[in-house]
Amino acid sequence: MFDYSKSAVVLIGLALFILSSCSSKKNILFNTYQEKSISNLPVYTAQEGDATITSKEQIIQPGNTLSILNLQNEALISGLGGQNMQNLNQSTGMVYRVETDSTVLLPVIGKIKLGGLSRIHAQEELNRLYQTQLLSAPIITLKINNLTVTFLGEFNKQGNYLLQKDQVHLVQMMGEAGGLNNRANKRKIKIIRGNLQHPEVLIANLEDINSLADPRLMLRDNDVIYAQPRGAFQTLDRIGPATSFLGVGLSILNLYLLISNLSK
Question: What is the extent of the structural domain holding 81?
Answer without folding.
Answer: 65-144
